[in-house]
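Q: Here's a chain of 118 amino acids. Please give me its 3D structure as C-alpha cells.
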Amino acid sequence: MRGPTKEELVKAVRGWLEGEPTTADGFHRKVAANAMGIIERELTLWPACEAAAVARMSVILGETGDYDTLNDALAEAIRNGVVDAADPKVFAHLKQTSLDMLAVDQPRYRHSLTGEGQ
C-alpha cells in the first residue's frame, strides 16, 4: 500500500501532540484521530488484503514476488497491452484491491463501490 507510511503518520501525530496548543486544536485532533485510524486499519486489515492481492497477481502474471514487485509488473503489463484490464480476473483483482485500499484508508467511502448503504 502506498501513501504515508505508518511511521510517517505516527511521527506527524506525535509531533502535533507534543506541540503547543493552538486555537485550531479541534481540527487537528480530528486529523490526528483519522491518521491513527488509518494506522490501526493498516496494521489489522492490510496484511490479509496484501496476501490475497499477491495471490491474485501471481495467477494473472504467472510470476511470484512481493506486493510492490507484482503490482508494478501488473501495471506495466496492462500499460503495454500484455494483460487486458477488461479480462474478468484482472478486473476482479483491480476492483477488490481498490475496495481493500478504501477499507483501510477511507472506510466511509467503501460502500459506494460495494452497493452497501444504499
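Q: Can you summarize the key feature?
A: The mean pLDDT is 87.
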